[in-house]
Amino acid sequence: MSDNVAMRAPWGLSPSPTWTNRFLELGPAFYTRWSATPLPEPAWVATSDTLAQTLGWPTDWQQHPGMLDILAGNQPWPGSEPWASVYSGHQFGIWAGQLGDGRALCLGEIETAVGPQEIQLKGAGPTPYSRRADGRAVLRSSIREFLCSEAMHGLGIPTTRALALISSPAKVLRESVESAAVVTRVAPSFLRFGHFEHFAALDRRDELERLLDHCIQHLHLGKDQLTNAAHPALALLQDVVNRTADMIACWQAVGFCHGVMNTDNMSLLGLTLDYGPFQFMDAYDPAHICNHTDTQGRYAFGRQPRIAHWNLHALGQALVPLVGDTDALISVLDTYPERFQEAWLNRMRAKLGGLAPAPDDGEFIQQLLQWMSDERCDHTLFWRRLSLAVSRWQGGQEQERAFEPVLDLAVDRDRLQSWLQRYQQRLQHTHLDGAGDHMLRTNPKYVLRNHLAQMAIEAAQAGDPRMVRQLLDVLQSPYDEHPEHDDWAGWPPDWAQHIEISCSS
Length: 505
Fold this sequence. Notes:
Shape: globular
Number of domains: 3
Distance between the termini: 35 Å
Helix content: 40-55%
Order of helices and strands: EEHHEEEEEEHEEHHHHEEHHHHHHHHHHH
Radius of gyration: 23 Å
Largest sheet: 6 strands, antiparallel
Structural class: alpha+beta
């Protein structure tokens, strides 16, 4: 157990970071203390300076002796007490039994200006939970996770963060031989639905109670309310339901497909967790499947809200020993659809300029989405062009001319024109001055499209990490124009349709 003694960072930062490691106080049933497997010849690929600033680190932190080796897993960080966590879960709807941090190692928890943050190395070698795997991450998938973590943060979507990406010439066998890499991930906690599922499956009530207390005391906002609740487990579940519904609403509004929404990939804090076969849709399609492994389409884009509800039911089942009253649990879980719908409608109203709620909003928005689906209209391009059109119109440009670039996206122009007329009337009747500017701050110009990630991967594999770093800069401010990178905001190339991503991505 940690003695919570402040230790010197490698660069001698003053005041020194304080390692708290409150997770270790849960006891050894929850983790195994472990050390990383050294990574040969590590090299920086990219770092998130914005995250480093949030942590309170100096601007040149990555240049200080020891940092590269520490984040590569080659030497211990003074004061850290690394561990790998055990959990279980449902994968593709099937109980998978014990899982755990098979290729992730938490260095510990540090105090920061934004609260305690866990620092985790993904790809640090095998752990007791690796299930005969090598515990490594490859450069290809690590670039995708690094960039998407920071892209989601730039979009304002709850997510784990990525501090650093380190490469190595060490070879790793996947579908082919690839080079190894390590991503440094940061989050207030990496606890998942699967942590509760694990101890419920083992009928370990003591551990369930300990985990519940830990979540309430250390992780969740409004902890006083949760602590004083008549039924803390129900109060916690309600909090997780709300956070999850809000997160999924963000995904659906921006066109993000997670691809592998197993219960062990669902965060108790409502953070987007574990970036694997994800994709930001090009053409809008509710049936879009981004994960080549998902042959049944369980995690198709349009199914994500329902799958999140299913996963919450799995969490609720794990909490039964702490509640007893299944009717009360079901009542909490039944709040999810309404919470999601309202959160999603609020997101969509924001995308449309901050429209005031109206009784027909659901039908109005679905009419647009149906047109987008029927014509396979590019999701990101449409919303950005609509934002620009409203901005030009409110800036004095003649209406027909302002909206012409939007209509150029349509095959059936009359159908889109009919919807636009309804939309323009809504804007006029609600007197939304500045709606266009609001939309430009709500509908991103840039998202991490598959082809952009693939181009950055291929360049980095050839020894040139510049595109990774340039993409990072753009994706951390995706609503800005970045005119030097206009080509990244255009149509995806034809070859992008043939990119396949799977659970190994």
